[in-house]
């Protein structure tokens, strides 16, 4: 069984890696927060991940085994609560109240997304915000105190989000 033990820094050069041969795995956010787990790649290969605790695997993270095997991590679609908000003040109020509860929150152009939670859904509903449950990739903000966040200048992860709700 292949064990992936090293998470490459997002700023690390990938030029020395043979990215034509790699395995891929799709993981939910809860799985991407874990440092140790058994996985099955999208090609059906059983493997393991054993990285340093506290490292969150993001959509697009690259992991290496000691033998140089490459694993690309994808965010798996999962059922989430999404709120599509056009009013900037209402959007800011929702972010404030969710952040005040230390909720992992994905903030996008006109939408907020968090792990499905009926209490939080009701709170937003009380603010006048409609919440939908949908299957989507969940890629929340790293947070101000996340390792390496001081060196980041952009929150654009290069992913397009399609909005089908008004």
Number of domains: 2
**Major β-sheet, in short?**
6 strands, mixed
Low-confidence stretches: 148-166
**Could you tell me how far the N terminus lies from the C terminus, measured between alpha carbons in angstroms?**
46 Å
Cα gyration radius (Å):
17 Å
Count of distinct strands:
10
Order of helices and strands: EEHEEEEEHEEHE
Mean pLDDT: 86
CATH domain class name of the largest domain: Alpha Beta
Report helical residue fraction: 10-25%
Given the helix and strand composition, which structural class is it?
alpha+beta
* Shape by Cα distribution: elongated
Subunit organisation of the chains = single chain
Write the CATH fold name of the largest domain. Answer: Alpha-Beta Plaits
Question: Could you give the order of strands across the largest sheet?
Answer: 2-6-5-1-4-3
Strand content: 25-35%
Task: Tell me what the structure shows.
- The protein has 166 residues and is an alpha+beta fold.
- It has two domains: 73 residues, Sandwich (HSP40/DNAj peptide-binding domain); 75 residues, UreE, C-terminal domain (Alpha-Beta Plaits, 2-Layer Sandwich).
- The protein is 15% helix and 33% strand.
- The protein contains three helices and ten strands.
- The strands form two sheets. Strands 2-6-5-1-4-3 form a six-stranded mixed beta sheet. A four-stranded antiparallel beta sheet has the order 8-9-7-10.
- β5 and β6 form a beta hairpin.
- The radius of gyration is 17 Å and the shape is elongated.
- The protein starts with a strand and ends in a 29-residue tail after the last strand.
- The C terminus is likely disordered.
């Amino acid at each position: 069984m292949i064990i992936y033990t090293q998470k490459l820094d997002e700023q690390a050069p990938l030029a020395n890696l043979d990215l034509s041969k790699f395995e891929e795995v799709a993981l939910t956010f809860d799985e991407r927060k874990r440092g140790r787990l058994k996985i099955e790649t999208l090609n059906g290969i059983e493997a393991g991940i054993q990285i340093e605790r506290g490292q969150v695997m993001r959509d697009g993270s690259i992991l290496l085994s000691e033998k140089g095997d490459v694993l690309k991590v994808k965010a798996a679609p999962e059922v989430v609560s999404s709120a599509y908000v056009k009013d900037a003040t209402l959007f800011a109020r929702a972010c404030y109240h969710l952040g005040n509860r230390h909720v992992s929150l994905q903030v996008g152009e006109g939408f907020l997304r968090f792990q499905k939670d009926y209490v939080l859904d009701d709170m937003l509903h009380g603010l006048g915000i409609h919440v939908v449950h949908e299957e989507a990739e969940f890629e929340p903000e790293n947070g101000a105190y996340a390792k390496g966040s001081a060196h980041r200048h952009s929150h654009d992860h290069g992913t397009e989000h399609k909005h089908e709700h008004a």
